[in-house]
Design brief:
Radius of gyration: 15 Å
Shape: globular
Largest sheet: 5 strands, antiparallel
Helix content: under 10%
Oligomer: single chain
Distance between the termini: 48 Å
Structural class: mainly beta
Number of helices: 1
Strand content: over 45%
Number of domains: 1
Length: 94
């Protein structure tokens, strides 16, 4: 059985941590890739129960302090990957 996981938020004004109100991912998840963008951040893949690499993508919803599983998934299950944000003008160059 895996340990319970919790989401904590850092208040940048007071530099203190607090537990998110509704904030747990709805599954045991370890070693996901974290990527920020569009005024929030995402968990990409990771280990699920039984050390299975998952293709699931979660988006953090700041207004609800909760994680939402997105309909879109990764092409392959990943864990401990690296994600780097790339400006749109660079990503769309052909």
């Amino acid at each position: 059985m895996m340990e319970e996981q919790e989401t904590y938020l850092l208040d940048l004004e007071t530099m203190t941590w607090r537990e998110a109100i509704a904030g747990d991912v709805d599954m045991d998840l370890y070693a996901p890739t974290v990527q920020s963008g569009f005024d929030t951040f995402y968990l990409l893949g990771g280990y699920a129960a039984g050390a299975v690499e998952t293709d699931i993508v979660h988006r953090y919803v700041p207004e609800d302090e909760a994680w939402v599983e997105l309909e879109h998934t990764l092409q392959l299950g990943r864990r401990s990957a690296v994600a780097i944000g790339v400006p749109e003008e660079v990503a769309n160059c052909v």
